[in-house]
Write a structure and sequence with these properties.
Blueprint (H helix, E strand, L loop, with lengths): L1 H22 L5 H38 L2 H7 L1 H28 L2
């Protein structure tokens, strides 16, 4: 019995070694660098978007609690820029969805 368990263990270890070093395809150094740069860029973009969203929500909440939101928005250039950015992102999102939907329906 001990002999069978030993064989199973060694067979399993051999299969793991084959899977790791013979069957798996490892990325090249350049592929890893490219993917790392893409991840860092996406992190920066996402951080900027979340920071802008946090600023906008904080600004809107404070102006709602203080009183007139319309006059506060019109007096703040940053708020107008944020609104323009959100509208642009909204339009881009739905344009991409529209293009993808029409590309697959042909």
């Amino acid at each position: 019995m001990a002999e069978k368990k030993k064989n199973k263990l060694f067979n399993s270890l051999d299969e793991i070694k084959k899977e790791l070093f013979e069957r798996s395809v490892w990325p090249t150094r350049q592929e890893v660098i490219n993917q790392t740069v893409i991840v860092i860029i996406l992190l920066i973009i996402t951080s900027a978007f979340l920071g802008a969203a946090d600023y906008a929500v904080t600004f809107i909440t404070r102006t709602l609690l203080d009183g007139s939101i319309i006059s506060a928005i019109m007096s703040s250039a940053i708020a107008l820029v944020l609104i323009a950015v959100f509208v642009a992102l909204f339009v881009i999102y739905f344009a991409i969805r529209y293009v993808r939907k029409n590309r697959y329906n042909r």
